[in-house]
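Trying the structure run again after the queue cleared.
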Amino acid sequence: MKHGKIFTLALFVIVLASLTPSSAIAQEEGPKSNRPGGVFASYLYSTFSDPIFRGPGESGELRVGQSASGPGFQLGYLYLGDSFGVGGGVTYWRTMEFNSFRAPTMPGSGTYVSYKNPHYSIWFFDMQFHWLPTRLDVSLYGILGLGSNTESSTISGATPPFESWNGAKNTSSFRYSYGFGLHIFPLRNVSVHAEYRLIPGTSTTEAGDFLFSREGYDYYTVKDVRSENHIGVFTLGVSIGGMW
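Done. Tokens:
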């Protein structure tokens, strides 16, 4: 809910910006006065919520109730017509670092496995579908991304016969994402956007409730539940575009 409120506030601010006198002048000049076409490059700042990591022994997935923020980059192509448009490109988020944590090896177990310095790097091939509902320089869009998530951490604390679980882990897996956003074009070659997308997991072991922190680790219970969970990504971006 926290990120939903932030996203709603961001949309409100962006819509207010679209109603400035400069936008009104742009409306009189024509529906495509500030709408760029062609290659664009973007700087992103994103917050990732509820990260998913491989469970001990890489059996299933473990969702952890944390969040982390960091930069990303996007390079793509955008075409906007009078009412509709399409875009595509590559989005990359560099390493996202979360808090180290510990969780039982299995539900009800008193033995904990430690995940030290867990982090992500993610890239997607994205497709965007834009709708321009008015003559204002604003578009609403849906997004679908196909790509990969690389998760890394150092695991320790597994006891025989599971000592092979210990050590540095670096695992890449296919991911897809989907979401929606709002794009505003205050200048011909500069635009801003707010976006929220979800990255689904697969069969996931719930990390459960937070217990306490000790010696640099967050401790969680483990629920004996298998379900599909999602990583939430809220993004604010600034783009330079319109370069053919």
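The two ends are 40 Å apart (CA to CA). Worth checking whether this holds up in the mutant runs.
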